[in-house]
Specification:
single chain; alpha/beta; Rossmann fold; eight-stranded mixed β-sheet; four-stranded antiparallel β-sheet; elongated
């Protein structure tokens, strides 16, 4: 049931939103069309731009960039990234841009000429005299002025994780864009080749000079080494070092092993020394509890404990089996205790042995160092001469290798560049995307118009439906009086519309009001004297009063009294003048016959309009004479309708409210605000006025349904209840 209510509420909310859109559809459509039109103007005013692109494959000599050491992978990656960033900056360099600008004479092309205002800019931009504005940019003359524009239009980017460099250029001329991209690629490759050839020649000359010098140093250093070996009668350092290394390696390995063993034993020994000499403390140490011997007796203890627990559930404490099980558990626990302390004592002994072994190995190591110190001078001199020979030999070999590589790369270069895709004139503009601009303008206009519609709707505090009346002021809805169109008023006035159209929807609406008044309270007689009022003026109360009088006249003699003495209207739509009126009758200056007008078209309908306005309307309506006159009229008519002034501007209706049988509050659809109706109702309640309900007047049938009201369905069936 809850889910059903939730779905119903969601559906109702969506329907309310849709109804708001329906009510404001013309405003929404207008704003959307205006926004879309602006989008079309903006899209048409933007100058089309074409993008041409080319792709270059750049392959460097990895031998110069990458290291063969696997540990230098990060440096290799950084070197490659730095290389490609360098190539991008070379393509975007000012010198290359200057060369292209001069070669293609870009200063006279479309991209560098003064801009012409677009259609929208020409439409909205004028100078002080009202004439359209001219170009906002003067003609550029110097190459230095063209370079920033050139670099702004030129885009050079690296492919993701590839050796591809993409060169793009944006221009208003597709052919020019392709020519510039191809020229940039060609100039970059040409400069790269020239630079590589020049660098290769310089490298070869430098390497040749330094190679001969390195050869002479190598020969001299080899001669010095040979002479020293003969004098000292020693071999190469490698042989001496091999013997020493073997001996030192053995001692060092033993020393490292002894220190490691001592460190491990020391850790265990400190843990035991710092712990209390109890079984519980020792069992908290990981290496004791995991000892195989301890694990074995712990398993025996666990089995004994399990057996003891099972037997305790069957037998008493004095049973032989229980005594045996208890004894077995006790022995198992003693074995655990012995095993734990045995391991602890073993750790102490192992630590003492490890310390002794470390001292002995360390003594042998110090003895070896002392022996080596005596021969240090000779070995140092030998090593120095050998290092000098090795250094000179490495330098010589390196220079020789570089010289050979320079000869090989002299013609080909160390960087290989290929044009994978040359630029071609693009067939379609790169921008603007006119469809997207227009689409954005359309969506923006629709969004703004919807926001305006919802803002106006949620800030509109007027009554729109019968549900609003029941919800906002807690009054029963007696009926809805629709607004009258020009066609309906072509033959008659609003106050007599149902006389000419007795089967119209308007007549059915008035009949519905009459029915609700008469049968609104089945336990009592229908009200005889009914006051019709409104919160403010121009809410249609006079139209409702007169038409109610017409429909009530079908049930018996009915009198319509015009109590709005400040702004009387009834005489304006009457064809017959009378000698007196309300004031004359109440004052005794005119008889009832002379003060009322008998309707010539509606039987039993009488009207008492205002002929002379009283000087003080409130005193007139609250006077004793008026009450006495109303008492006389009650005896002569079955129904009396009193059309009173609005409540908020004046207090005439308030003084009449206590002497009538019922009051009807007329509320104008989409005009009367909630606060006005509440204030008017509050004033009626202060004088204990018998309020029968409210009538929603001036409701437009064409838009009324968009509010989702269930009170109004048209009444257009042609049925008459007269």
């Amino acid at each position: 049931m809850f889910e059903g209510n939730l779905v119903h509420n969601d559906t109702k909310s969506l329907l309310e939103y849709w109804q708001i859109i329906r009510r404001h559809k013309w405003a929404i459509i207008s704003i959307t069309i205006l926004s879309t039109t602006i989008g079309v103007l903006i899209a048409s005013s933007i100058k089309p731009s074409y993008l041409a692109s080319a792709r270059l494959l750049v392959e460097p000599d990895n031998r110069q960039l990458l290291s063969s050491n696997p540990s230098n992978n990060l440096n290799n990656v950084l070197n490659m990234r730095s290389f490609y960033r360098t190539q991008v900056e070379l393509i975007r360099s000012r010198s290359l841009a200057t060369e292209i600008i001069k070669e293609l004479k870009l200063g006279s092309t479309i991209d560098y000429l003064p801009e012409k205002p677009g259609a929208l800019k020409q439409l909205i931009s004028t100078d002080e005299k009202g004439a359209p504005l001219q170009s906002s940019r003067q003609a550029l003359k110097g190459t230095a002025e063209l370079i920033p524009i050139f670099n702004k239009r030129l885009n050079v980017s690296l492919g993701a994780n590839s050796e591809i460099i993409k060169i793009s250029y944006e221009s208003g001329d597709p052919v020019l864009a392709a020519n510039i991209v191809n020229s940039v690629s060609k100039e970059y490759i040409s400069r790269l080749e020239d630079s590589q050839k020049k660098n290769s020649q310089q490298n070869i000359e430098w390497l040749a000079e330094n190679l001969e010098e390195a050869r002479q140093k190598l020969v001299e250093s080899e001669a010095q080494l040979q002479a020293y070996q003969s004098e000292e009668r020693i071999g190469d350092s490698d042989d001496e070092a091999r013997i020493k290394s073997s001996k030192l390696g053995g001692i060092t390995s033993e020393l490292l092993s002894a220190r490691t063993l001592r460190a491990e034993a020391e850790i265990k020994f400190k843990q035991i020394s710092e712990s209390p000499s109890t079984q519980e403390a020792y069992e908290s140490l990981q290496y004791i509890i995991t000892d195989p011997a301890v694990q074995k007796v712990k398993d025996i203890e666990a089995k004994a404990l399990l057996s003891f627990s099972e037997l305790s559930n069957r037998y008493g404490h004095k049973h032989p089996k229980m005594i045996a099980a208890k004894s077995e558990l006790k022995n198992a626990r003693k074995r655990v205790t012995k095993a734990v302390f045995r391991v602890a004592n073993t750790v102490k002994r192992e630590y003492e042995l490890a310390v002794a072994k470390e001292k002995e190995v360390n003594r042998l190591y110090e003895q070896f160092k002392s022996e080596e110190l005596d021969n240090k001078g000779t070995r140092f001199s030998l090593a120095k001469l050998e290092r000098e020979v090795d250094t000179n030999r490495e330098l010589y070999n390196m220079l020789l290798t570089r010289l050979k590589e320079a000869d090989m790369t002299k013609e080909n270069g160390v960087i290989n560049v290929k044009v994978i895709d040359a630029a071609s004139p693009p067939k379609a503009p790169f921008k603007p995307n006119r469809i997207r601009i227009i689409g954005i303008a359309f969506v923006l206009g629709l969004f703004v118009s919807l926001m305006i519609a919802f803002f106006r709707e949620f800030n509109d505090k007027t009554f729109k439906t019968g549900e609003d009346i029941a919800e906002k002021i807690k009054l029963p809805l007696l009926g809805i009086f629709p607004i009258l169109n020009t066609k309906e008023l072509s033959e008659t006035s609003p106050e007599r519309v149902i006389v000419k159209k007795p089967r119209s929807s308007i007549a059915e609406a008035v009949n519905n009001i009459r029915t609700n008044i008469i049968f609104g309270n089945s336990d009592e007689d229908p009200p005889q004297v009914i006051m019709v009022t409104s919160a403010v003026a121009s809410e249609g109360k006079t139209t409702v009063s007169t038409n109610m009088g017409i429909t009530l006249a079908r049930l018996g003699p009915t009198l319509v009294i015009e109590a709005d003495t400040r702004r009387p209207r009834m005489r304006s739509f009457m064809k017959k003048n009378q000698k007196g009126g309300v004031f004359e009758y109440v004052a005794g200056k005119s008889s009832l016959k002379d003060s009322v007008v008998i309707d010539p078209e509606v039987k039993n309908l009488y009207t008492m309009p205002v002929k002379m306005k009283p000087a003080k309307p409130i005193e007139f309506l609250s006077s004793k004479r008026f009450k006495e006159a109303l008492a006389v009229l009650r005896k002569k008519f079955k129904f009396i309708i009193i059309d009173t002034p609005p409540i908020l501007p004046v207090s005439d209706a308030i003084v009449l409210a206590p002497i009538v049988d019922g009051a009807i509050l007329v509320i104008g659809a989409e005009s009367t605000k909630h606060a006005m109706a509440k204030d008017a109702l509050s004033r009626l309640e202060q004088v204990n006025a018998p309020v029968l309900g409210a009538v929603l007047s001036r409701a437009n049938p064409k838009t009324f349904g968009s509010y989702g009201s269930s009170y109004y369905y048209g009444y257009g069936y042609g049925y008459s209840a007269y």
